[in-house]
Backbone:
């Protein structure tokens, strides 16, 4: 017979877990609302807080509707093949599951960084706080597990296992060593699921199988991903300031995220070449590269932006001559972090016969660096040291990459319609030269305007803590 004390302890633990879940879910809702409001302000729109909260609630309701539909509805096997995209529903389900598994692994790391002080308070409280942070993601995880198990193919079973492992890891307050083992198991299972699903995908059969040029493409993408993952942290360590952050976790993040961006952009090229719109392949690859770069820039704003100095920027006003070296150092770091990624992707495009698309990618990268510097300078988020963890959400870093992704999409529609072979289009070379010229002018504005910007910087205008 269960004693009353044991029942009371279990009830108390459940109450504590629910309290922690509610607390972090509320904080996450507020963070999303504030970030959405900041985005609207940066685009020139003004919206009341109640209106923004309504949009966030609508997004949550839509997510719940997607979860409910995924649990009850079994889609047809054809997937996106009627639209010319060679992916059936099982491949799409396994791909979505692996991406969510990676997001769950990242959420555990984000919780560890932001809520480390709660780890020693109470295990039920920590478990509840972890659950509240990913409450909607947990619902999506359950839905994707159900969808993958409905097909019960090898790739789908492995993908479901990867999601389950990542979900357990995300909500469980376990030690470092078991967490590391579970993380490695989830990553390896996810990689096996991707390999199994993609090798069975119809695009491989349409391309003639592994012996008809697809295997070299796969090997090129794998080699490029490995090269970027190795060279990015090495390049950062060689160019970063002596006192810059160089922890092991930061270098692992640099390696994993830069490799993921190249994998996304590199894999899009051979896949798009067998669709109904093969002339858009290099542009789609470039657009996906810059979309990945948005998250990459935001994740590492603390080590590549002058905003990381926080209130130290005000001290520079006592010696204005120091601001230009500071800007140059931040530009050098932000460029060095992406140099391996951009060079390897340009080489990949060149090997596949897209010379002018590679030149366009290089010019867009130069433009992205200058736009990002200008936007960050004029929309600086100055935070106290106690709020430095919020810099990735408050900073405007990454808007330049988003604009360049839009430019690549425009090129895919305009230049691709003029001629279906991008390498034979002379306008690409002219456009690349024009973009470089614009980037040089923007960079000159950044350095010329730096002293005036610094004098105008005030806590009332930039404090967002």
Residues:
């Amino acid at each position: 017979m269960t004693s009353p004390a044991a029942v009371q302890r279990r009830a108390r633990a459940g109450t504590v877990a629910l309290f922690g879940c509610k607390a972090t879910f509320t904080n996450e809702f507020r963070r999303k609302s504030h970030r959405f409001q900041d985005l609207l302000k940066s685009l020139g729109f003004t919206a009341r807080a109640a209106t923004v909260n309504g949009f966030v609630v609508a997004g949550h309701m839509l997510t719940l509707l997607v979860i409910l539909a995924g649990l009850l509805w079994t889609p047809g096997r054809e997937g996106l093949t009627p639209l010319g995209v060679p992916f059936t529903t099982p491949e799409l389900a396994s791909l979505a599951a692996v991406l969510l598994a990676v997001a769950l692994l990242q959420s555990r790391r984000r919780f560890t960084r932001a809520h480390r002080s709660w780890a020693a308070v109470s295990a039920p409280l920590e478990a509840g706080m972890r659950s509240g942070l990913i409450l909607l993601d947990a619902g999506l995880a359950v839905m994707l597990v159900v969808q993958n198990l409905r097909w019960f193919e090898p790739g789908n079973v492995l993908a479901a296992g990867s999601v389950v492992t990542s979900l357990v890891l995300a909500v469980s307050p376990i030690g470092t060593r078991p967490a590391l083992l579970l993380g490695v198991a989830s990553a390896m299972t996810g990689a096996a699921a991707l390999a199994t699903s993609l090798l069975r995908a119809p695009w491989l059969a349409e391309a003639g199988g592994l012996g008809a040029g697809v295997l070299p493409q796969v090997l090129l993408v794998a080699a490029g991903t490995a090269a970027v993952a190795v060279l990015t942290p090495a390049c950062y360590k060689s160019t970063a300031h002596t006192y810059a952050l160089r922890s092991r976790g930061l270098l692992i993040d640099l390696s994993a995220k830069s490799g993921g961006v190249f994998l996304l952009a590199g894999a899009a090229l051979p896949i798009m070449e067998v669709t109904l719109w093969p002339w858009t392949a290099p542009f789609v690859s470039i657009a996906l590269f810059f979309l990945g770069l948005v998250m990459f820039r935001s994740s590492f704003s603390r080590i590549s932006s002058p905003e990381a100095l926080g209130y130290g920027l005000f001290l520079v006003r006592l010696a204005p001559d120091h601001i230009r070296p500071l800007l140059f150092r931040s530009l050098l770091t932000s460029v060095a972090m992406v140099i391996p990624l951009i060079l390897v992707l340009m080489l990949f495009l060149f090997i596949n016969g897209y010379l002018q698309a590679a030149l366009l990618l290089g010019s867009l990268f130069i433009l992205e660096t200058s736009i990002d510097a200008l936007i960050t300078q004029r929309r600086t988020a100055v935070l106290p040291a106690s709020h430095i963890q919020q810099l990735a959400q408050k900073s405007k870093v990454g808007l330049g990459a988003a604009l360049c992704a839009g430019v690549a999409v425009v090129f895919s529609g305009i230049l691709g319609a003029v001629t279906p072979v991008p390498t034979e289009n002379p306008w690409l070379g002219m456009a690349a030269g024009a973009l470089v010229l614009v980037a040089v002018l923007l960079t000159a504005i950044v350095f010329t305007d730096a002293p005036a910007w610094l004098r105008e910087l005030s806590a009332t205008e930039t404090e967002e803590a």
Summary: The radius of gyration is 24 Å. The chain has two domains: 7-206, 210-465.
